[in-house]
Amino acid sequence: MVDVPAGTLTLEVDGQVVQVPDDGSSLLEVLRQRLGARSPKDGCSPQGQCGCCTVWVDGQPRVACVTAARRVAGRRVTTLAGVPDAQRARWVQAFVDRGASQCGFCTPGILMRLMALERLPGPVGPERVEQALAAHLCRCTGWRSIVAAALDVLEGATAAGATRDLGAAARRAALEGQASQVVGPAVVRGEAGFADDRAPAEALVALPRAEGDWRDPDQWVVAETLAEARRLAGHRPGRSSTLPVRPPLALPPGDWALRLQTSFVDPAYLEPDCSWCEPGGDPADPLANGGAFGGKAHSPVRDVARLLAERAGRPVKAVATREDLARRGPKRPPVALGVDRQGRGRVRVARTPGAELAGWAEAFRSAGLAWEIEEVEVPGPPVAAALRAAGWAEAAVVGAVLAALDRGQCPGASEAVTEVRTPEGAVAQVRLVAPQGPAERETVEVTVQAGEVLDETTLRSYCLGAVHQGLGWVRREGLAVDEAGEVHDLTVRSFGVLPARATPEVRVTLAPPVGPPRAASDAVLAATAAAAWLVAGLPPAWPIERVPNADPVEGGR
User: Fold this and answer.
1) What is the pTM of this model?
2) Does the structure show a pLDDT above 60 at 236?
3) Alpha-carbon distance 529 to 446, whole Å?
């Protein structure tokens, strides 16, 4: 019998019996902060909504950030590192073969959930896999490659054409994500070098004050632990709102045949902003693997970590929690636009305090619409032109819809075909077919001309992710922001990201390559959004499933 000192907990982690203080910590805090485990990721603690911290407790998947460590005392905890080598390798290879991981932050938790399906009796089909994925979010891959990889393992199959040049795959990933990215088994295992994983164990933890300006280092608190920093910073767990999502801008005056009002949209990347620095050193890059859809382009964490480390005389890790990012992180700028019967239009784009809109108008016009653009001041969270294809995608969607209407397509029909060309010459054609009955599933067919392919699997993966984001943008993604500009949707689930079960079947065809490699996934994003909007009947406000289409804006902004 083990002698357990008072005030401690004993548990088995990855086959080793450990003792930790019984101080009210969550299982995730114990694993990452006490024991140095790095495969469970902290994407939203203490919300328990993203699934990135999933581990096994006595062989069953458990979200670690909302599991009190004292509840698992005396029990067996398994992280990805503790899974039998052969089983882990089989799943990791399936994910590599299918391109089912991009940045890799969410993947270890997803693997832990899906590997548990191997213990179920009888065959496990796609519906059961999608049901298991309901506990998770993945922003990058569009789910279909994850489902395919899981079925490969569960059915004993191997992905066709699994031999890949991972260097070429990384070049395609960097082209599509517009940031340095690696591809391979280490990424699937969650070992892509995330800043929070590489911070020294002795680093202090800094968090922005709940009501402060996170760009001001004096508005950050520093403590020995994340829990103590949360307390000092006045953090409270975020909640979803009952407020409706409403576009903040009124339409420009005019007699419009086509109208569109969009809402604040969170980029919803899962790795929170984090950097760490030693005194006199260079701060860690918050972009470890992938570009966070442009959401970290103006993140203050690097500068904060450097300054606070100099002040403290020891390493400091600057972290933004999920609630911090919901309130202060950059959002896609809302627009309100109208198009008359001659195809002429006017655009309003929202500017909020702290906005970074330089280049937005130029990006819009680069899609071929030389319209009048007006920036309108509104209260709200910061918006940024650096977010994925901001400006260009809005114009590309409208242009694709106008072209489809000219070809005789009817809004509200069960099928839509749209095409988008990027300024660099990549082309995406999307055919979206709505289900004709309750037993049918929506399908999306994508044909892409992206120049030299480099790696088919990576290009397909990015196209799948772009379909997922395009559909979500039109249908579900948006934030509840009140008239004073305060964000009320503070949980990662409330952003409206499509779950696996709401994502259609997608088929991607790669056209014979012509010319050098070109980024194509933004074209897929815009073409998908245009097709989804057409099939929905061109309602005037997005997200169409959450906006009362379309109430007037208070004050006529």
Assistant:
1) 0.95
2) yes
3) 12
